[in-house]
Amino acid sequence: MRAAGLLAAVGVLLLICVASIMIGAKPVPLGDVWHGLFHNSGTGNDVLIQELRVPRTVLGVIVGVALGLSGAVMQALTRNPLAEPGLLGVNAGAAAAVVSAISFLGVTSLSGYVWFAFLGAAVVSVVVYVLGGSRSATPVRLALAGTAATAALYGYVNAVQLLDSAALDRLRFWTVGSLANADMATVRSVTPFIVVGVVLALLIARPLNAMEMGDDTARALGAHLNRTRAMGMVSVTLLCGAATAACGPIVFIGLMVPYLVRALTGPDMRWILPYAAVLSPVLLLGSDVLGRVVARPSELQVGIVTALVGGPVFIHLVRRKRMAQL
What we know:
- It is a single chain.
- By secondary structure, the protein is an all-alpha fold.
- The protein is 76% helix and 0% strand.
- It is built from 14 helices and no strands.
- The protein has helices spanning 2-22, 30-38, 44-78, 90-104, 110-131, 139-163, 165-171, 184-203, 205-211, 215-220, 225-247, 253-265, 269-294, 302-321.
- It is globular and about 65 Å long.
- The relative contact order is 0.17.
- It is a multi-pass membrane protein.
């Protein structure tokens, strides 16, 4: 049953990819999409598809995979259903590091500032975990620590942009999360990091299952807790850092999808991770397509759409879990 559901999810992803290529300021008929993909002859629609729509769609897929898997791994590591890279400040840390590299160090290429994104994501992950109480952290304390870190970091990002008009021009869409400037060079730059992060996440699926039952039980089952936590944090850092460097901080994808997936698959991480890897790009690309439709001929950036959709989901999750303890 779960295998059939996963196959259906892959079919939905393929349909969303086709919609992402077809829909935009200039709609492209399905026949022209096929021609542009497989029989490129240099027409206007062929160029539009090959140089703009396909890179945007491919980047949306790999970034969606990265955000969904990082959210699922983070929730499993912390045993916290509110854990999510955007909510816990990881994306904000990567964004602050990238803005600093661009404004103060003159770094302008993705291959240059992706390393700063990794550093920022890793540092903020550790800081939020410590502020939230480390191993004694409750979901709400972690959420509050992440919210405080996010507010402080985005205040810093906004201040730097206001003081540096050139940085503001370069980053005004990036800081809200956008796929609008995607190209294949960006895809090639971040894909190796995301592939490594995906492999690490899938390798620790079984020990993450053991950790769900508590540290003592996990040790009794032969899980190596420190190694699993280290691999998990490396995976989250690679996935979030690469995704944020590529298209800016996009929130709530890593919260919503793993939460919904658990209702379909149960608590087994061996199924949660593949489902999250498929359904997260569905949500991300779907939000991107929606943003192009509601504000046509302009567009609403995907980070804004996911925040508008994810806010009510987050409120519902908090109320349902009745997490009132601090």
